[in-house]
Amino acid sequence: MGSISSYMTSDHHRCDELFSQAEAAASGKDWGTIAADLQIFLDSMHHHFKMEEEVLFPAFEERTGMSMGPTQVMRMEHVQMRELFDAMSDAVKLQDRDEFLGQAETLLVMMQQHNMKEEQMLYLMADRALAGEMEEVLQQMRAVGA
Amino acid sequence: MKLEAGLSFSQAPPILVPFRFFLSAPLFGLLAALLALWYGPSLMESRWQPSVLALTHLMTLGFLGMAMVGAMMQMLPVVAGSPVAHPVGVARAVHVLLLPGVVLLAGGFLLGAHWPMRIAMFLLGTGFTVFVVAVGLSLKRASSDNPTVVGMRYAVSALVVTVALGLTLASNYGWDWWLIERVRLTNLHLTWGLLGWVGLLVAGVSYQVVPMFQLTPSYPKLLTRWLTTALFVLLLLWSVVYWLPEGAQVQVILAVSLAAAVIFTVFAIVTLRLQLRRRRKQSDVTLLFWRFGMVCLLLALALGVAGQVIPVLDRVQGDNIALGFLFIAGFAVSVVNGMLYKIVPFLIWFHLQSLLMGVARVPNMKLIMPEPGMRRQMWLHFAAVPALALSALWPPLIYPAALLFGASMVLLEVNLLNAFRIYQQNAKLAPKGEPSST
Questions:
Q1: Is B2-425 a domain of CATH 1.20.210.10?
Q2: How many of the other CB atoms lie within 10 Å of CB of B214?
Q3: Does pTM surpass 0.90?
């Protein structure tokens, strides 16, 4: 049986991989490629957030009764990251390389410290709290569309 | 909106909690450089001189201590999920006690006077007690499954040993009592401080930050599980054996020292290899600082082992001083400096974005801390370290070395202050009054 930790952590790594592709693309000249790589990365992030916000967090909150606790902080950081997504997209529209790389750098640190909190705390708490309904939760997360 | 912003801050302490330490650190580095300029080549005559002791403590307690205390208070909520309670009060107390404490300690060494030393003992003893208790409680709550938490616990324990030994030694200067074992106690003190507090903290923290900033693979599980524990046990073993009668201990000491050197070598090489395998192609200042630091660590270890194995080398003038410069300025200062260039712009961005969400767009990290300024400072530092180490062999070199190191510290302070000014200017745009700037 899988766990929330391992499933979501490997999704983090997948997103990291796509991030580094988009960032590496920015050293090239072709803004079409940059835009395309950025979109692939952003889609993976939106999908990850959706799995958390629509399945994992509500399930965790319902089971533990902690609606203003760690999940709330994570939701808030998702909002912060969405602002960075917009800033990166804007930079691509304006073809502003420095701005794009600066926003990418900011997002990377934001994202990594966020992932660290999830992987080392929240997901472990969720594994414990949702042990009885693990399969359903994983099933529902896998079913989340893009 | 207000409520949510408050919640996101429950994870991160107010910005001045780490920044009061970060902004103070380079000033001590500058003081160290000025002291080196003042005393010049005479510094190389012996490592026991008051001027060398003052210089060492300005760099270790002053630069490294400030930066590491600030960084730890900032990182505990993120890496350990366990914030320090009452961060504002703790940070203010620790800062206000340590800052004059370090200055008076250096002054006490230089003047050979009793009173500065006694006051410094009180200030540093109290400051570190507050810090250790606050951080210790937070680490006690944290999960032991996390190798970084384990490394931090060992590091803080090593800090306790270092401070206790340091206070004992300082009391010798403060009251002139007859301390027969001064040499042994000093060696214990600096080993626990440098290999224990500094080495263990850097190792523990790098498990998180090396993969995080460059998207490298993780450190091998075997290494993160055992490395800091093995080092801590070796430090304990070494300390016990060190008190055996001379002769009986030589072989054991040699074996333990070699084992510790091997472990640190493994750590440095694994770190360098992980960085080579990073998924992120962009090279940046932090990465270069870390690589430079790891190379200096390897050189320092080689020099240290050579000194142990070939006793003649140990008696070469300045050998210990070259080792000290490589470890302290080359390894520890570089790693801390590189970290500051990630932590500082990120925290400014993070706090501004929480304040200004929906009001104004926040400048990105590279606008907060521009690359060219960081690079200039980095090159000054990279030039300063070899010059400092080589000045142990050719003492007049200390003048250009100290000038380079001082210039690097000035530029670091300027870079940090410019970034902080961007925070202050933008924070004014926040909807309701001042941010919590305490």
A1: yes
A2: 22
A3: yes
Residue B11 has pLDDT above 80, yes or no: no
Residues 191-230 of B with CB under 8 A from A: 208, 212-213, 215
Q: Judge contact between B170 and B117, C-beta under 8 A.
A: yes
User: Which pLDDT does position B5 carry in this prediction?
Assistant: 34
Over the range A20-58, which residues count as b (16 or more CB within 10 Å of their CB) and which as e? bbbbebbeeeebeebeebbeebbebbebbbebbeebbbe
Query: What is the average pLDDT score of chain A?
Result: 92
Mutate to test the interface with A, among B205, B207, B282, B287 (most CBs of A within 10 A): B282
Nearest CA in chain A to B147: A120
Examine the pLDDT at B63 and tell me if it is beyond 90. Answer: yes
Helix axes B66-75, B201-214, angle to 10 degrees: 60
pLDDT at position B55 over 90: yes
Total beta-carbon pairs less than 8 A apart between chain A and chain B:
87
Question: What's the CA gap between B227 and B151, in Å, rounded?
Answer: 9
User: Which residue reads 């529902």 in tokens?
Assistant: A140
Task: For residue B160, give the amino acid letter.
Answer: V
Residues 6+ apart with CB under 8 A from B268: B294, B295, B297, B298, B301
Domains of chain A listed by start with CATH number: 4-143 (1.20.120)
Give contacts of B 343-372 with A, CB under 8 A: 346, 349-350, 353-354, 357, 361, 364-367
> Looking at the predicted structure, is the pLDDT value of residue B7 above 90?
no
Q: Do B342 and A109 touch (CB under 8 A)?
A: yes
Between CA B26 and CA A2 the distance in angstroms is 49
Q: Are B139 and B157 in contact (CB under 8 A)?
A: no
The helix (run of H) or strand (run of E) holding residue B306 is helix B285-309
Q: How far is CA B51 from CA A8, B37, B47, B339, B341, in A?
A: 55, 11, 9, 29, 31
Residue B23, amino acid: L
Tell me the per-residue pLDDT of A45-95, one tens digit each, with 9 for 90 and over: 999 999 999 999 999 999 988 887 889 989 999 999 999 999 999 999 999
Q: What tokens does A49 get? A: 């957030």
8 Å CB contact of A120 and B79: yes
Task: Count Cβ atoms within 10 A of the Cβ of residue B2 and give its class: 0-12 exposed, 13-18 middle, 19 or more buried.
Answer: exposed
